[in-house]
Amino acid sequence: MIVDFHTHSLASDGALAPMELLRRAKAAGVRQFALTDHDTTAGYLSVRHTNEADEVGLISGVELSCRWATTTVHVVGLNFDADAPAMVAMVEQLTQAREERAEKIAKRLAGVGIDGALEGAKAIANESQIGRPHFATWMAEAGAVDSVTEAFDKYLGAGKIGDAKMFWPPLSDVVQAITQAGGVAILAHPLKYRLTGMKLRALINDFKAAGGGAIEVLNGRQPETDLKRLSRLAEGNGLMCSVGSDFHRDFEYGPKLGIDVERLPNGAYVWDALEASA
Ligand code: AMP
Ligand code: MN
Ligand code: MN
Ligand code: MN
Predict the structure, then answer these.
(1) Which of 9, 13, 156, 163 has most ligand 1 atoms within 8 Å of its beta carbon, as the pocket-test mutant?
(2) How many Å separate Cα 70 from the centre of its chain?
(3) Does residue 96 have its Cβ closer than 6 Å to ligand 1?
(4) 123/146 Cα distance (integer angstroms)
(5) Which domain holds residue 207?
(6) What is the mean pLDDT for each group of 10 consecutive residues in the chain (278 residues)?
(7) What's the gap in Å between 193 CA and the centre of ligand 1?
(8) Cα–Cα distance between 158 and 45 in angstroms, integer?
(9) Count of domains forming the chain
(10) Which residues contact 235 (CB under 8 A, 6 or more apart)?
(11) Quick one: 115 and 73 in the same domain?
């Protein structure tokens, strides 16, 4: 069976319209699928009642931004009621947070001589949930940098001037928004936060205490060599496993849509729980 529980569309920082993503997922043979845009369910809501959604086994999804101590952490939510007040309120709060952060990023960029970034990034984002990739794209188009990669390396990446992280709600709040809406909360790409082993264990403890249900053992932006380690970590903490490509756009060396579950080690996977509850 082929599944994918972590993907992005134009509703956040992906390149494809939600319907186009469903068509690609279908072509890739995906049987269970989630669109997990950053801090918005707009893409999911726009396609949830279509034939294509049925064909790929679409469930609700989102990737929520939060903070744990000083670290920005991503929590994927799956199979929740997208109309539940807890989820609607959290998405509204995060939309507001992104707006405030965008203003702060633009001010900081103006401080180093890059003017007009807010208007520029908003024009790129259009209706999408605004994020650093929209700033990066505008900076490259405006000639402030040579590439999106350079924009992150010099201005927007972790620890750089445009990395304004303290607007996000605490980890426990976003986990609870997902569980209160009836969904399962998944700690996304646990190794991308560059935590020490001790801190990662502390994060997982706090995540579980808040009601977290699974960790992502396979993510297209995380080396596959970590699969076994993360599977053991999930099992040792009584958490389920989830997998996703984290697809954003076609990119020669980037992840493709769809993961064949046959190649995963034995374990407790979120889709088994979804099938059991269906
Ligand atoms: P945000 O959620 O607005 O803080 O933006 C984070 C997003 O930027 C991530 O989800 C990635 O899609 C993208 N991103 C992060 N680092 C880089 C990078 N070095 N180059 C290109 N895109 C990146
Ligand atoms: Mn992204
Ligand atoms: Mn992420
Ligand atoms: Mn993602």
Answers:
(1) 13
(2) 19
(3) no
(4) 19
(5) 2-91+167-277
(6) 98 98 98 98 98 98 96 97 98 97 97 97 97 98 97 96 88 98 98 95 98 97 90 96 96 88 93 82
(7) 13
(8) 31
(9) 2
(10) 267, 268
(11) no
